Amino acid sequence: MYAWILILTLLAVMAVAYQLGIKRAVSSVGGLTQINALHSLPSYYGLYAALWAGIPALLLMGLWVGFQDQIVTSLVTAHLSPDMLEGQSAGRIDLILNDIKNLATGNIVSATVTPEVQAAADQYARLELIATWSMWLAVLAVALGGMAYAWRRTGPQMRARNRVESIFLAIMIVFSSIAILTTLGIILSVLFESLRFFELVSPVEFFLGTKWSPQIALRADQVGATGAFGAIPLFTGTLMVSLIAMLVAVPIGLMSAIYLSEYASRSVRAVAKPVIEVLAGIPTVVYGFFAALTVAPVIRDLGASIGLEVASESALAAGLVMGIMIIPFVSSLSDDVINAVPQSMRDGSYALGATQSETIRRVIVPAALPGIVGGILLAVSRAIGETMIVVMAAGMSANLTANPLDSVTTVTVQIVTLLTGDQEFDSAKTLAAFALGLTLFLVTLTLNIVALSIVRKYREQYE
Amino acid sequence: MNNLDASTPGAPPRHAIDIVNASLKRRYARESRFRLVGLIAVILGLAFVVLLFADIVSKGYTAFQQTYIRLPIALTLEGIDPAGTPDAQALANADYMAPIKAALRQTFPEVTERRELRLLNSMVSVGAADLLREQVMDNPSLIGTTQEIWVLADDDIDMLVKGTIDRDIAQGDRRVKDDMLGWVDRLEKQGRIEKRFNTIFFTHGTSREPELAGIAGALMGSFYTLLLTLALSFPIGVGAALYLEEFAPKNRWTDLIEVNINNLAAVPSIVFGLLGLAVFIGFFGIPRSTPLVAALVMTLMTLPTIIIASRVSLKSVPPSIREAALGVGASPLQTQFHHVLPLALPGMLTGAIIGMARALGESAPLLMIGMIAFIVDVPGGFTDPATVLPVQIYLWADSPERGFVERTSAAIMVLLAFLFLMNLAAVLLRRKFERRW
User: Fold this and answer.
1) Do A176 and B367 touch (CB under 8 A)?
2) Third-level CATH fold of B216-433
């Protein structure tokens, strides 16, 4: 809460600095009549002062907010009597520290409050207060210091515009590196946790094992909870659901793209194309709801009426609905590549006496094939990474089966189940989620790179 | 010439045109079959859209109404003197369930047995007392009088009145017992049951009781998350696009950034959740299940969309504008900020709105960062624990009570309405500011 007030205060200081910078610049050349002697427009001197007041202070504040809690906590821990911490596991110490924090902020405490804890809590509260106030002082001091620096530097010779512009350019470079940082962050975070996982479970077992039951026994005498991490059933489950989805999406998507771009009249196309693309804008959680509460019961009842046993969370239901979701993906990508096929190729085919469908099947589709394949690969990567539909409509049990009426589980479902329960960062169970995430990331990345390069190469061909 | 004729000796000479003519019927039939298949595909696609919306609406429209029971409630509250002015603390602590129960007993005087009385009491919602307390605290002069008050019904009664519960199945398989059926019929005959507009749905946070569950908390959570996402991702996205499109030298580094952005746009959203969990929560220690951490994850997720849209929009500004500005002495940055950016801004805003619409519907990464916690309170800031609308839908869809099905569908309708409005805004914006150079 205080952070927001501080940010607003900083903005106010920056506004003041802006005005002062302009004033200073104008007066340094002897008033508005002499303004031509200035190197830059007065507003650049204002911006220069505002940036000097704002940026160092904001950076300091970010660092302070980031590290204040850790430093205060370590100070409090250092003051705790050693016999309180001796022989305690890391988890217990965390619990005690949590209690101290909760006590200090007036929340509910899990254990009874001993005088020691009370004292530590008082100390914690005191230190937090001191830290917060010193942050205010330090940040405002830096802001005013920056302002004073800009004030001192401001003069007719200073190249304010160039300096302000190079700061802006630097900010833009930082912004565009965020994309790289994100990728790096994904790879590093997933990779580190995966490596820790592979210390506990061998990669051979993970990639080739056929038994998946990540529950690790809480007690030694518990049965059926051995903690097996063979991911093959997850991979086959993911493939099956994706395959069903593609069996739905590719024919419908491709045929509707062909029909809409080659046969349909302009008015039909103007209505049908955006309506089908509505499917792409619907949140996946809505599809999940549709799959779990409408499609799955219908399939189960249908199966029962012809004497088939269908699991209530069948791969078929999830795959069907995922296919519906992917239709606009396939159709709009195929539409693009079909339209990119030059008209001269069509005309050539018609001139030889081919019918429209022969032209489409023998000329247009082969010509557009690389693009269509690229689009389908993108759709597959989308299907593999899709989460909500399978979480809601596919099951949790890792069956190694080829029967689409059975319940299967997928990589994404397991990531969600493993990470939404209890969360300790060092148990094999949570680390397994990161290993699955790494696999997912690498597979989809490969698919995307291949697909994008196919699509790009194909586009260049006709441009 | 091709020698197609006289293939078999003795037969009349065949011309190419004859072969073509002989096959024409078959080829035309094929043509129309192909066309039909295409048409069927289009119709199927359209049918899915209709089916999806019809399913959601038919399941959810009833949730906008809620059943209330009118009861003659004697507001004699234990320990509160009707004559004096009661203080707020005593008013808040009083037992409001007792007068409701008394009114129920008075309406059905023949019910005396303990088990039946419990059934009778279960007809009103457990939250009815809280609602009554709000009414009385707003208007303390009610104390001591007997008022006909509309009391919130339990979700089972609500389902029964709305016709969702089948009266014909055996009592054991039905959540509403035979006794209750009779009571509800009698109340209906007396005009004591009414369906009214469901304000609770829009003003309350979530609850374990379907009749008390609302989307206000999730809506506010989504609002804070989107606000922060927009505030972070729009400036960053525009800045990055501006640099990459206008200033960046064409070298390996910028190529790498470019490939990277395209690939990030296609990374499964759940991977961003893993990133958020490991980096923002695990490393930086940002409190989980807050709009703050959700917005950070969403920012990283929507950035590629916004950058790509912004670059397209910058590309569409003709070079003559830049050359003219540079020609009269503007610096490169002045050229961009004073001339190119204002012209490209509508397109960038359109991209941002579409990115926000995607962020509004996204739920998978938020499951990872703790947004699935059960939070009743409506969040009041960026660091309050919160949930968002799609995650609320996911949680409700998992709840076994029948009453949550219609609420889930209704929440989906609200979500789709917001998405529709955002996309409409994007389309209108594009149409209004679209320029052909």
Assistant:
1) no
2) MetI-like fold (1.10.3720)
